[in-house]
Each structure stands twice: as C-alpha cells, then as structure tokens.
Design a protein that fits this description.
Order of helices and strands: HHHHH
Strand content: under 5%
Number of helices: 5
Radius of gyration: 16 Å
Shape: elongated
Low-confidence stretches: none
Mean pLDDT: 90
Number of strands: 0
C-alpha cells in the first residue's frame, strides 16, 4: 500500500490543490472571478498537468500512464462544473451540462506531457 501511495504522490498533490482551489472559489476569498479563472485554467492547470505527465511518462514503464489523460481531462471538467457552472446554475435557476470539450483539451495537454516524458526516457 505504501508503494502505491509513493508512486502517485504527485496525483494526490494535484487533487489536494484542486480541493484548495474549490474552497477558495466558494469562500469568495478572491474578489476577481475572471482573474481566478485565468490563473487556474490557463496557467495553473496546464502547467501542473504537463509537469506531472512528463514525470509519469518518464517514470512509469507500462501503458497505464495513458489513463492520466482521461483522469486529468475529467478532473478539470468536474472542477469547472462544480465551480463556475454550479454558480451559474444557482444564480439563474437553470441546468447546465458539463463541457465535454474540457476532457479533450486537458487530456491532450496530458498526452503531450506523456510523450515528452517518453522521449526523455528513450535518451
């Protein structure tokens, strides 16, 4: 069990950061929702997803590492759905569907990181 935790500590750290960002969003510590969105979706998430994917692409030898693409895509989509979409649904009494395109976008970012990690491993 300790080996499993040790192998995926970066994924657990990523989930912890997402939980902190969720708390920050709903406690209104940030006064600028647009700045928070730009920081998370255009800087923090792509950078952390790329770095973690490079590390796991370099470290993990089997093909299970490609499941990270689905994981990162779904995690960012769920984060968006539980923050901005939920706030919109509560404010306007309507139901929004999740943006499936976020799975593709952030999954592709993760795939690029995994490919870079594979290339670094082969050298």
């Amino acid at each position: 069990m300790k080996k499993h935790i040790k192998n995926f500590y970066l994924v657990y750290l990523y989930l912890f950061i997402m939980a902190i960002l969720e708390i920050v969003f709903w406690t209104n510590i940030n006064d600028c929702g647009l700045g928070f969105g730009i920081l998370t979706y255009y800087i923090l998430f792509p950078l952390s997803i790329t770095i973690i994917s490079i590390i796991y692409g370099h470290k993990i030898k089997n093909n299970k590492k490609y499941l990270l693409t689905i994981f990162f895509g779904i995690s960012v989509m769920l984060f968006q759905y539980s923050t901005y979409s939920l706030a919109n649904m509560l404010a306007f009494d309507k139901i929004n569907i999740p943006h499936i395109s976020m799975i593709l976008l952030y999954g592709f970012i993760s795939l690029i990181g995994i490919v870079i990690g594979n290339c670094l491993k082969s050298k």
